[in-house]
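Hi everyone,

Forwarding the result from last night's run.
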Amino acid sequence: MEEIIKIINEVANKYRFEYVIIGDVASSVFGKPRMTVDVDIVINVERGNVEIIKEFEKRGFNKVSSKKIKQFLNGYPVKLEYKNGFSVGLRAASFEYDFEVLKRARRIKIFGVNVYVARIEDLIVYKIARFDDIDKADIKSLIFRTRKINRDYIEKAVLKLEKESEIKMEPIKGDKKRMKTSMKHGKMVLGSGWWRNGCVEVKR
């Protein structure tokens, strides 16, 4: 993991692009630490720039298939596989919200390297967008371990991402407070106990 963090920073410095670490690594920084072999990052590069991927290959990552490169060029995340099962989840910023997250990123030292990590509120928004069991646990951990969270920002960011993604929200039968949404990259569920009256809540 330490080696991957250094490579990400070196590639970003060489090609002079903005990046932000999201996902499990970022959640471990602010929430409950846990083992992960993936580093998810969003980068600010021109769509069509495949030199970034080639640079990762030069630094020991497995060769990326033409299919995955095409996915990356179309704005989808691509998994860059490294040795010993480690990997980097790479996605080019495509939503206006992504660029806001990049601007708001905090500079934090991980393994002795100064890297850019998404703020807690933005981590929660991204995790709401997918909302699997791990994301649910991470959201709880982030909320429990953080004294101050800008809940108003989270609510507005979710609505903005929803609009940008052209998401259609439909109530689940039998639970008016629970919302189910289909997204390109997963599901967003705003349920009772998690999102109530515009505020994220966790039952203590």
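The two ends are 33 Å apart (CA to CA).

Cheers,
N.
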